[in-house]
Amino acid sequence: MLQSAALVVAAAALAAAQAPSYAPIRVDCPSAALIGRLGDPTRGNQTLPPDEQQYIDNRRNNVLPDLWQQYLNDNATGSTGYSASEIVGGQPNLGIAISGGGLRASLYGAGTLSALDGRNSSTAGPLLQLASYLAGLSGGSWTVTSVALNDLEPIYSLVTGANSSRTGGWQLDRDILAPSGLLGFSDNGNYYDSLEEDVRAKAAAGFPISITDLWGRALAYHFLNGTTEDNFFSTDAAHDQGTLFSSIRYTTSFQSGQMPYPILATTSRINENQQLTNDSTSVIPLENTGFEISPFTFGSFEATLAAYIPLEYLGTQLSNGQPTNRCVNYFDNAGFAMGSSASLFNAVQEGFVGATFSSLLSNLLQAVTDLDPPEGSVALVANYPNSFGNFTPDTGYSFESAGEQILQVTDGGEDGQNVPLMPLLAKARALDAIFAVDGSADTSETYANGTSLVATAQKVELHAHNYTRFPDIPHNQQEFVDQGLTTRPTFFGCNISDANMGNYSNYPIIIYHPNSAGANPGATNYSTFKLSYEDSETISFLDAANLYAKRGYPDPSTPTQPDEQWPLCLKCAVVDRARQRAGVARTDACQACLNRYCWSPEIADQLVNATQTAGNNTPASGGGGGGGASPSSGAARALALPAGGVVAAAAAVLGGFALLA
Ligand SMILES: *[C@@H]1O[C@H](CO)[C@@H](O)[C@H](O)[C@H]1NC(C)=O
Ligand SMILES: *[C@@H]1O[C@H](CO)[C@@H](O)[C@H](O)[C@H]1NC(C)=O
Ligand SMILES: *[C@@H]1O[C@H](CO)[C@@H](O)[C@H](O)[C@H]1NC(C)=O
Ligand SMILES: *[C@@H]1O[C@H](CO)[C@@H](O)[C@H](O)[C@H]1NC(C)=O
Ligand SMILES: *[C@@H]1O[C@H](CO)[C@@H](O)[C@H](O)[C@H]1NC(C)=O
Ligand SMILES: *[C@@H]1O[C@H](CO)[C@@H](O)[C@H](O)[C@H]1NC(C)=O
Ligand SMILES: *[C@@H]1O[C@H](CO)[C@@H](O)[C@H](O)[C@H]1NC(C)=O
Ligand SMILES: *[C@@H]1O[C@H](CO)[C@@H](O)[C@H](O)[C@H]1NC(C)=O
Ligand SMILES: *[C@@H]1O[C@H](CO)[C@@H](O)[C@H](O)[C@H]1NC(C)=O
Ligand SMILES: *[C@@H]1O[C@H](CO)[C@@H](O)[C@H](O)[C@H]1NC(C)=O
Ligand SMILES: *[C@@H]1O[C@H](CO)[C@@H](O)[C@H](O)[C@H]1NC(C)=O
Ligand SMILES: *[C@@H]1O[C@H](CO)[C@@H](O)[C@H](O)[C@H]1NC(C)=O
């Protein structure tokens, strides 16, 4: 009886969480305040939103202790020599962050997560199951949303569709913008009409729209579960037009506290006039507020906002916290959330001028105009009616977009921080370690070179390291490269004098996992332009990323052999702060591991020397070859694009839209 009653409740809640269409609706406002403040760590009162706190408390108290205990006792991943119960008493607290970089980053993130998924009989450890938080940005946000809304389905079957309970997986063989191929004009036309129809409904309901809405609808066909191989071009199927990001709350694994709390990261800009110089590698200044989308809230812990709106009321226009109109529901469409985190179109507007491109851009602007956007819509960014209008943070800082009607939300990586670390550095989240998966295309060979970490270090400096802290890292990308840190995982910030998160001087250990060549077991460096993958490419990419995540830092004399100590070293790192809080000394086994993987400024010279020596001895790259712009991006690629991953990627996607529109 009890059980069936619970099921009825869950089913009713689920029905309410699925909107009838893509268009948000207007509802009466609740009497409670709509804006929640997150406090100020410099005054010692930064807090989590209450719903998140409750979720995390339940997970930390009732789910994670047993899992940590099992992990520590699991000799297959090596023995730390610590007493499991002492370490668990220290409450280890792990986060995972997945970078942007288009489908390459989605797949690199997915392959890495599969290695961290305890169900994949991996030796890297069940870090996915142990993580308190899972953050994603742009391409990484697609992975995170897909994992969460598909109820934590095992990663490999989630992506490939190998599990018969789902049909088709991510279907990356269908190009995101031209799914029936360049010759299949009529199917592409129907497909595009379906996207347009949904977005038109949102505009007709009076909500500002942009190209991000079309983009988000396209992403939903792949990363959410409502589109199958059979119904892909069907105009009758809903294709997740009403699936909300907040629906994550109703999945079984979320309800039972099994899921790492998922977070998507974005940046924002004030308006079109806020532009950086043409030669900058980023588009949005680090000073601008980064926003996060989570199952309960939309907002930011950053000093310039320190506030949130409950996710179900996202889209509500507020002035100093007061509604200026009726409230809004269903604005938190899951596809739109993924599109927002990957809303990179403004990069082109800011970074590129040229006759060919101008006409492309004007075609696209016309395509958005054809959808009858309400006045004030901004075509090339994600449009959020500003819930933080005339808002004053209580941190002493001011919110730069407080004077705007529309909050202009942009791709999470546009300020150069392509790995979503900021949300995980919030002091209130108290993370001990962050596994940072960097699939950025920083180098000419489409690998990462530390650009994102350098940007995050600069961002943290903006507030004098008082608002949050970040460990010492090399000063710039050249130092990352010279010290060999782009070729293997490295731990930053191992040693700290007080591991209590309440102590200001504390920060998490960053476990940096850059996509790299070296002895890479297969291609993981496909172009950001590539908007479709053959099934065989998808599988070999997943396998390569999976192996790479289990490889660690091989002995230079046997560069293709995984480091056998790596699983143990990972374990030592993720529990090290909890060990310290528990007052336990490092064991020799863990100290040896940390000596191998931890970076500090003192060893920089030594690493340069070692890297130079090894340089004469580098193995032939096993990977590579991952070139290939997809057909739909051909037009954009033919343009003379400026350097800079985000600008090029934006142009590629816009080129694809131009062919469709
Ligand atoms: C934090 O403390 C400051 C200063 O006392 C106060 O103005 C602010 O309201 C507090 N914020 C929260 C969320 O408690
Ligand atoms: C793991 O190894 C430790 C030390 O070698 C041993 O004490 C313990 O019993 C082993 N645990 C299991 C489950 O085999
Ligand atoms: C698709 O995802 C939703 C939301 O998590 C879930 O309720 C539904 O059961 C899933 N459908 C399938 C076919 O897996
Ligand atoms: C298929 O999906 C179900 C539900 O998520 C899961 O329990 C099962 O382990 C999956 N099977 C495989 C082979 O991944
Ligand atoms: C970028 O370069 C173009 C052409 O050289 C110029 O018109 C534009 O003003 C520049 N933008 C910025 C922000 O400097
Ligand atoms: C940061 O903290 C230091 C030391 O507590 C203090 O001297 C400084 O004024 C603070 N800076 C800001 C911007 O709050
Ligand atoms: C690192 O990547 C950035 C692009 O993000 C590039 O400008 C820079 O030249 C690269 N530096 C090195 C040393 O690879
Ligand atoms: C924080 O840690 C530092 C370094 O160990 C210590 O000097 C300081 O007293 C600690 N502060 C608090 C508030 O615990
Ligand atoms: C685990 O990952 C590997 C590598 O991608 C894959 O081949 C295998 O099928 C996965 N196994 C399961 C059970 O998901
Ligand atoms: C951290 O501390 C240990 C023990 O004091 C020391 O051996 C090690 O060199 C330090 N490591 C770093 C990276 O500073
Ligand atoms: C690095 O190599 C140089 C030249 O061989 C040598 O002088 C220096 O002592 C080495 N530094 C370290 C830290 O090993
Ligand atoms: C991938 O890396 C290989 C070398 O490791 C390189 O030859 C190839 O051009 C790279 N592919 C892309 C798309 O950058």
Automatic annotation (TrEMBL):
Residues 28-604 form the PLA2c domain. It is an enzyme of class 3 (hydrolase). It catalyses: a 1-acyl-sn-glycero-3-phosphocholine + H2O = sn-glycerol 3-phosphocholine + a fatty acid + H(+). InterPro entries: Acyl_Trfase/lysoPLipase (IPR016035), LysoPLipase_cat_dom (IPR002642). PROSITE patterns: PLA2C. The chain crosses the membrane at residues 639-660. GO terms for cellular component: cytosol. One of its GO terms (biological process) is glycerophospholipid catabolic process. One of its GO terms (molecular function) is phospholipase A2 activity. It comes from the Eukaryota. This is Lysophospholipase. It comes from Rhodotorula graminis (strain WP1).
